[in-house]
Amino acid sequence: DQQVKQNSPSLSVQEGRISILNCDYTNSMFDYFLWYKKYPAEGPTFLISISSIKDKNEDGRFTVFLNKSAKHLSLHIVPSQPGDSAVYFCAASAGAGGTSYGKLTFGQGTILTVHP
Amino acid sequence: GAGVSQSPRYKVAKRGQDVALRCDPISGHVSLFWYQQALGQGPEFLTYFQNEAQLDKSGLPSDRFFAERPEGSVSTLKIQRTQQEDSAVYLCASSLLGGNSYEQYFGPGTRLTVT
User: Fold this and answer.
1) Residues of chain A that touch chain B, judged by Cβ-Cβ distance less than 8 Å
2) Per residue in A54-75, pLDDT tens?
């Protein structure tokens, strides 16, 4: 079963506009959520994260929102830049201090293309 | 280097061959994870080491898959008698703390193609 889902395989936006990437999860044990960015032939790179005790975390152009009741999170990028074009993965973890050891469950990814 | 490195970057194996994939984590990182990423999918957890101890191998798809980290630094993922369904990118990630840090640093991966 897919515990983390990114239902949009791709997203295309114009430079300077907002990009919104969405992610849904089913496992209520998840307590930490991360977004990773991946360029071709490279490994995923950590972008931003949020703990389940928060509903928003902001870092420069990137903001992650968490709606626990809906089991939904989103990544907002504003303004979008052509260099943001990459695959974005949502990931979730259930208690790094426990027996899950912080292992990550990933969504399928969303390909973001930002046009100049 | 400062990051996680993996070798080889690309590996082509004939069905039935054994392969060994190497991961050099960031120096001092206690935790090491292996993930498998099939084409068009997100990475999927395979196994976890805390120092030299393999604490979770629940994601290994079959007993043909074996991982080790004998001295608590470099790790090797071995796949015996490779099958076509093993074709994927194998990612290694490390993190600083022993199971208390969520942020993982990934290597570039090894792309395995089984023909």
Assistant:
1) 4, 6, 32, 34, 36, 41-46, 49, 89, 91, 93, 96-99, 101-109
2) 999 999 999 999 999 999 999 9
